[in-house]
Amino acid sequence: MTSLFLLQLLNGVQLGVLLFLIAAGLTLVFGIMDFVNLAHGVIYMVGAYLVVMFAGMTGSYGLGLLLTLPATLVIGLVLEALIFRRLYDRPHLDQVLATFGLVMVVTELVKIIWGQSPLSILPPDALSGSVPLVGALRYPVFRLAVIAAGLAVAVGLWLVITRTRIGMRLRAGATNRAMVGALGVDIGRLFTVIFAFGAMLAGFAGAMVAPILSVDPGMGESVLILAFVVIVIGGIGSVKGAFAGALLVGIVDTLGRSFGPIILRAVMEPSAAAQTGRVLAPMLVYVLMAAILAARPQGLFGARP
Amino acid sequence: MTRWLMRRRVAAWAIFGGFALLPLVAALTGDPYLVVVATRILAFAMAALALDLILGYGGMVSFGHAAYLGIGAYAVAILSRAGITDLGAHLGVAVVAGAGFALVTGAISLRTRGIYFIMITLAFAQMAYFFFVSLSAYGGDDGVTLTARSTVLGQDWLADDRVLYYAALAMLAGLYLLCVAITGSRFGRVLTGARENPLRMQAVGFTPFRFQLTAFVISGAMTAIAGVILANQANFVSPSYMNWHRSGELVVMVVLGGIGNLLGAIAGATLALLLEEWLALFTEHWRLIFGTLLILVVLFSRDGLTGLFRGRGK
């Protein structure tokens, strides 16, 4: 039981760091430009498809990943220049509609290019197999690598945000965009950088889960909604909040799915417990969000509602 | 203002008259499929109308209204499976369930504003979506096929597509009149006032929250009725009714028709569904074209779609 708990905890952390990679870009764009981007999830999906394609072309997952990063960065730059740049000063409703249209377009393009059926890709040889953790418990090396990479990015991002000039501008921009603009910072260019960087992080997340999950045209959506939940819980514009929220959501979701039925079995018969657990588990994170919002409408680390 | 009311009355007669004559046109042209499509349009028009009530008049951009479509549809599926086939019962349960879900999620969502509100309604709709996806007793992801339509007074009148169509039309007309009454009432004016300036409404002595929540609940219940019609039309219910794409399409319909303009919601739903049907004739990838059009319209109409119409609700 303890080792199962540890296993699921690791899975939860792994989901958490992936959600963080997606939520980080989303929350900065929200916080600084007050821009709602429903299309962020499809970039994650495109990242996963690209790594499958590039790995197929080069014969190596690592090379595929190296090519996917600049590719998603470029996609981010292009989308920003073509579409998002024109929407900064528009009402939220316009941003929602345009990015919703973009979700439709990208999803259909992916279906046209790569087909409807799920694709899969193996983890690189160097990271396949599993390592012993505690006692008889073994854990796949690749999943550990995902956790490590995600945490490394989180630390890197934290250093950039707290220790560099651009990070200073990001924090200031998230607090008061108009003031930062008045002080002579080119907010438009700042946004281009954040947006492209956020797209790359989402693409990175997609590329890393490709060997774990199946790659299909619907994969961006569930993740986007979970990333929203993460941001709402953490507080819009706060990267610290996104990190805390992502880990919380990842762990609660994973543990709820695996231990919900077990706990329910204590109060009801096994088959009913299994069924109830299956139904309730996916709702757990939303209940968590509702509870946190009921107490703090602005989220855990949010400045204002 | 009276001239505007007059024009609205004429437009309403034109729209509802056109819908009333449509089965005749279908019979004359020998195209029964027209009635099927039109029933879908009526159902979505109800949902768009309901959404416009809170989006256009209350300024609440709910991005999760598809959840109520699904709740209404599942009310039909679950009751039918239990042997209760009466339309009245289906509608009653759908309305109560829709209102209940709206009351709970609305109360939480309305603690927030703007972009938070959009995302939270979206998240709650996903919660409902996943609930039904994992409900294996009712087919889970695959959904349920209904063996028969709802009955009225024990009779299977709705089995005829045209009867179902007129029943839907009558409901849409009823809901439209309800919305006209609501928006013209003191309640509606407080709602609009709360959209424009909640602080001032508070200062005058109203509690915006209560009015907004009431409107949200009414809207949810109305959308659940649309779900009942949709389930009957398709004889099929699945979680895909609650997919967030559907919520997005509902918002598109309202905005397309002009927000804060009840007839516009009906027109927008008609336009959007006809466009979908038409594009689908050419390619299975119609979403590619629909999405591109959506982006282009938002980008290149000067103030976006919303700016084309009066009463923008941000």
UniProtKB/TrEMBL annotation, chain A:
Compartmental location: Cell membrane
Membrane topology: Multi-pass membrane protein
Protein's name in the database: Branched-chain amino acid ABC transporter permease
CDD domains noted in UniProt: TM_PBP1_LivH_like (cd06582)
Protein family membership: Belongs to the binding-protein-dependent transport system permease family. LivHM subfamily.
One Pfam short name: BPD_transp_2
Principal subcellular localization: membrane
Transmembrane segments: 12-31, 38-57, 63-84, 96-114, 141-161, 187-213, 225-255, 276-295
This protein's UniProt keywords: Amino-acid transport, Cell membrane, Membrane, Transmembrane, Transmembrane helix, Transport
UniProtKB/TrEMBL annotation, chain B:
CDD domains xref list: TM_PBP1_LivM_like
UniProt keyword annotations, A-Z: Cell membrane, Membrane, Transmembrane, Transmembrane helix
Membrane topology value: Multi-pass membrane protein
Source superkingdom: Bacteria
Subcellular location: Cell membrane
Predominant location category: membrane
Residues that span the membrane, as ranges: 37-55, 67-84, 90-108, 115-138, 163-188, 209-230, 250-274, 286-305
Name recorded for this polypeptide: Branched-chain amino acid ABC transporter permease
Species the sequence originates in: Paracoccus marcusii
